[in-house]
TrEMBL record, chains A, B:
Tagged with keyword Transmembrane: no
Annotated organism of origin: Zizania palustris (Northern wild rice)
InterPro entries noted in UniProt: GNAT_dom, GNPNAT1-like
Keywords: Acyltransferase, Endoplasmic reticulum, Membrane, Transferase
Membrane topology type: Peripheral membrane protein
Top class in the EC scheme: transferase
Family statement: Belongs to the acetyltransferase family. GNA1 subfamily.
Catalytic activity: D-glucosamine 6-phosphate + acetyl-CoA = N-acetyl-D-glucosamine 6-phosphate + CoA + H(+)
GO BP term, pick one: UDP-N-acetylglucosamine biosynthetic process
EC number assigned by the record: 2.3.1.4
Official protein name in the record: Glucosamine 6-phosphate N-acetyltransferase
Biological pathway: Nucleotide-sugar biosynthesis; UDP-N-acetyl-alpha-D-glucosamine biosynthesis; N-acetyl-alpha-D-glucosamine 1-phosphate from alpha-D-glucosamine 6-phosphate (route I): step 1/2
Length: 166, 166
């Protein structure tokens, strides 16, 4: 990341060059948010009302759920697209005196925008937010090939991820 | 697991032999719940009111946060202890049409009660609950040594866990 906003990472959008990192807005459905996610995993289109309902469910979690997006802010308004995204949700525990753990999920960069560091900027902001809201750690799961990528944000390998698909 | 309750895994406690698997109750503070968790990671004691506040915060998440405990139900009431625990929290996503992912966390069995399959019973119940509430997958992170343990519950290795500790 070329520069870091001096303001609160949780509350202030960051613009660096032609791309702005900010919180997801409900209007981002029209800017290609779901097709971007579909580059990561199955993500069928949602109607505007379905999208708004999902957005509201997640927004109701307040600071415990943050979705950041990287928007192509140099384009004229009708042309602006979401180029990258990543999510942080905060898990509360009895461990560590009622501690919090940040989970980074659903990080993806548009295939045509890779190599510009947008994913790293999103992830670094999510890590800053996790620290600001009092998490004692932040974790994520990835494929072995992405170890070096996340190491650039300060992550170190900690264990293995196991899964059951229903 | 020797037997499976025919009733809803989400709503009905399971008793198998001398140990009952049930949801955490606020009175479990007096049954050694926090010292049990401290066998997993740092878990300072909480006062009764701190414990109740943490319990209420998590209970407010409803079906999106479940803590199961295994209680030594053969003991006389004042002697009953929590022998094992595990937690499921449900993450909501835009992916998969507003899909849900279950995260299994904080699984621990009391050192004196290991080898009786209590952890596996807790984890299998958490997996059942994840399926019942509509998760499309359930995931957990563990050390490489525990791969075979979780494989007994149907988990397969999927990726690597990365972490930053603040």
């Amino acid at each position: 990341m070329a520069s870091r906003s001096p303001e609160s990472a949780a509350s202030v959008a960051e613009t660096d060059g032609s791309v702005q990192i900010r919180h997801l807005e409900v209007s981002d459905r029209e800017k290609g948010f779901l097709p971007l996610l579909s580059q990561l995993s199955a993500c069928p289109e949602l109607t505007a009302s379905e999208f708004a309902a999902c957005f509201a469910d997640l927004a109701a979690l307040g600071d415990d759920h943050v979705i950041l997006v990287a928007e192509d802010s140099a384009a004229s308004a009708p042309e602006r697209r979401i180029l990258a995204t990543g999510c942080l949700f905060v898990e509360r525990k009895f461990l560590r005196g009622g501690g919090k753990v940040g989970h980074v999920e659903d990080v993806v960069v548009d295939a045509a925008a890779r190599g510009r560091g947008l994913g790293l900027r999103v992830v670094r902001r999510l890590v800053e937010i996790a620290k600001e809201v009092g998490c004692y750690k932040v974790i994520l799961d990835c494929t072995p090939e992405l170890r070096a990528y996340y190491a650039k944000c300060g992550f170190v390998e900690k264990g293995v991820q196991m899964a059951i698909y229903f």
